[in-house]
Amino acid sequence: MTDAGRGVVASPDTKAINRMTISLLSQPVNLGLARVAVAAFFSQLDIMVSELEEIKVAVSEAVSNAILHGYLREPDRWITVTAAIYPGWLEIVVEDRGEGFCEADPPPPGSDGHEDGFGMGFALMRSFMDEVVLVSAPGQGTRVVMRKKIRGASMATPENPVAGNC
């Protein structure tokens, strides 16, 4: 399942300006770590605090989905979160090697059997990011790629080591 996006051009040949990767155990306590690590990484950009908050929500939803659906709450499995900065846009990739599902038949929102607000994660990711791409297959895990345009954001430099707002 893919989201057509809103004009983010993501060429595989584009070289990242900066990148970080963290691996987390599939435990709910690590949601905060994933959110803060990604926000801290992107704080080197001069972007709005509200945009950082939206990014943190999207990361939290993707990691939550890996914990709940990918690994069915098994606490000893690994989730990888990669954040990268490209000219004009940023990218977050959240990957698990869990259950996965057939991309042609993704579970609809709220289909996880919970009635307490679960099931809206992808809707939130899509509302906060410019592009969301989902790659999954049964038994192969899931990869969520989220991209966001960054307009006029500047990077921290040796002359200006604190460009961000986080």
Describe the structure.
This protein is an alpha+beta fold and 166 residues long. It has a single domain, classed as Heat Shock Protein 90 (2-Layer Sandwich). Helix content is 25%, strand content 25%. It is built from 3 helices and 5 strands, in the order βααββαββ. It has helices spanning 31-42, 49-70, 121-128, and strands at residues 18-25, 78-86, 89-96, 131-137, 141-149. It has a 5-stranded antiparallel beta sheet, covered by helices on one side. α1 (31-42) packs antiparallel against α2 and α2 runs antiparallel to α3 (121-128). The longest helix has 22 residues, at 49-70. The chain is globular and about 40 Å long. The termini are far apart. The model is unreliable at 1-6 and 113-117 (pLDDT under 50).
How big is the Rg?
Answer: 16 Å
CATH homology group: Histidine kinase-like ATPase, C-terminal domain
Strand line-up in the sheet with most strands: 1-2-3-5-4
How large a portion of the residues is in β-strands, by DSSP E?
Answer: 15-25%
Number of structural domains: 1
Structural class computed from helices and strand pairing = alpha+beta
Could you say what the CATH topology is called?
Answer: Heat Shock Protein 90
Query: What does the largest sheet look like?
Result: 5 strands, antiparallel
Which architecture per CATH? 2-Layer Sandwich
Mean pLDDT: 83
